[in-house]
Amino acid sequence: MRHHLRIPPVRGIPPAAALAVALGALWWWAVLRLALAPGDSGPVEGAVAVGGWGL
């Protein structure tokens, strides 16, 4: 028998929604860093920003 991991909502926020907001914030951070400080940005910011365009 398989047991599924169930993560309860925290303060009424479903885990999937919290993850989506966190990933969205990470993507915006990378895009703004590339736009505002292109000289200080590295490959990680570029990969995060480019990877988010497909969303």
Counted by DSSP, the helix tally is 2
Shape: elongated
SSE sequence, one letter per element:
HH
Radius of gyration: 16 Å
**Average pLDDT, to the nearest integer?**
82
Distance between the termini: 35 Å
Low-confidence stretches: none
Largest sheet, described in full? Answer: none
Q: Which percent range fits the helix content?
A: 55-70%
Category from helices, strands and their pairing:
mainly alpha
Number of strands: 0
What percent of residues are in strands? under 5%
Write a brief structural summary.
The protein has about 55 residues and is mostly helical. About 60% of the residues lie in helices and about 0% in strands.
What features would you describe in this structure?
The protein is mainly alpha-helical and 55 residues long. The protein has a domain at 15-52. The protein is built from two helices and no strands. The chain has helices at 15-36, 43-52. α1 crosses α2. It is elongated. The model has no long low-confidence stretch (mean pLDDT 82).
Features:
mainly alpha, 58% helix, single chain, 55 residues
What's the structural blueprint in terms of helices and strands?
Layout lengths: L14 H22 L6 H10 L3
